[in-house]
Amino acid sequence: MALIELSPETPAAPDPPAAPPAYVYRRLGLALAALLTLALGGAAPVSSLLWQRAGRVPAPAGTEVQLLGGRLYALDFQQRPPLITAWSADPVRRLWTAPGPQGSEEEPYYLTDATPDLLMVNVRRSTTVLDARTGAVRWRSATPLQRLDDRTGLVLRETFRPGTEYDVDTGAPGRLYGSTTEQLHTEPARSTAIDGVELGTGRRLWSASVPGSISTAWTGRAIVVLSADRLTVRSPRDGAVLRERAVPRVAGGLPVWGEAVGDVLLVHYGGFGEGGPVVAYAVDTLAPLWQQYQPDPQGSAAACAGLPCVRSLTEVQVVDPRTGRLLWRAEPDTDLLAFGPGSVLEVRGQTSPLRSVEQATGRVLADLSGWRGFVAVRGERDEAYVLTRPEPDLSTSVGVLRAGRTAVQPLGRIPLAATQCQADTATVACRVGGGMDVFRYRA
């Protein structure tokens, strides 16, 4: 609400002979408010302050739209090469159109991690960085580029022994080793180069080399590098080693991959989708916290993001990241998503929200039955979700749930059926027919 400050030089009015009591003014104000409400007939509902339509971005068949960095980007796959069009979200207007890298929607081709200045276009294993204000190409990386923050990125380059390339046409069994290129190998890399780069230019800031293949994780403050025998924490600014420790063999095996869960690092000795030992380390000290054997998930399709769990065909067990102790159990067809510092969002089929619960106990915080869609609010560090629900009149209700809250805050309605919604801290965009309708909201 705007406040108008009266100038101190404004002359004061003469005193009235007898000022009425304050309650008289209050009664007059209430009466006037009531008359205005009747006269306007509810033309300006309270929800209009929370939810306003900003415009529409055309998105016919073959066009994907992503909300990134406060802008909307339309990716037109009907063109060769695909065309990228940038739109401002408030007001909705076209900013520029530029050709993207060669590729098609049949292969991995997507946009990620826009900043106010940069847009990253990922095609297969390569990354092209565009100027978000003009669409001009800033630079290209032949191998995947991981954004660490608005200024810094990470690039990995692997070196393999010649003759270890895997021929996919043979279908030969055995463990394969992923590469920073599209070529798979039958042996681990001889070494992996780690380059810290300036995100906007590709200029190399620092470089390090690690023997063998590695797994990396970003904690939000540091880079964690897991190799066959060592766990290392590096500075994103200069690559300096902040902490390091040897990683032992467990049950006769070497570590396969690692992940960061809050302030805990989990080192897995079994491959993806396999059982095996898991050892937890503290991020700040690399001190070991606990070790346990996690059984084969038996083909469970459940997913756990941002929290450790043990999956099977009969249940999902949520584990305390600091102690490894079993906390509570969820149904086997439930996906669990870390939701803020102390809660979890339970969803089904990766599309339907069920409830939010306390991470420590599984106690229900908010029952989300009736809501049919959800999307994380970008820029909120997974601490807010926008929810959608179809209504009998074919409109779509929209609300927002924040971590730890016990109820969804209604925002407003979209007059028609809406799908493929995306959200950031100020904007919701949903596909409605042949376009993306854009709404401003305040929560």
Sequence of strands across the biggest β-sheet: 1-36-35-34-30-31-32-33
Shape assignment = globular
Helicity, as a percent range: under 10%
Task: Report the end-to-end length measured between terminal Cα atoms.
Answer: 15 Å
Number of helical segments with 4 or more residues: 1
Number of strands: 36
User: What would you report as the Rg, rounded to the nearest angstrom?
Assistant: 27 Å
Description:
It is built from one helix and 36 strands. It is mainly beta.
Topology:
Elements: H1 22-40, E1 51-58, E2 63-68, E3 71-76, E4 83-89, E5 92-99, E6 109-112, E7 118-123, E8 126-131, E9 137-141, E10 145-147, E11 152-159, E12 191-198, E13 204-211, E14 215-218, E15 223-226, E16 230-234, E17 241-246, E18 257-261, E19 264-268, E20 276-282, E21 288-294, E22 304-305, E23 309-311, E24 316-319, E25 326-330, E26 334-339, E27 343-348, E28 352-358, E29 364-367, E30 373-378, E31 384-390, E32 396-402, E33 409-414, E34 419-424, E35 427-432, E36 435-441
Parallel strand pairs: 22-26, 30-34
Antiparallel strand pairs: 1-36, 2-3, 3-4, 4-5, 6-7, 7-8, 8-9, 10-11, 11-12, 12-13, 14-15, 15-16, 16-17, 18-19, 19-20, 20-21, 23-24, 24-25, 26-27, 27-28, 28-29, 30-31, 31-32, 32-33, 34-35, 35-36
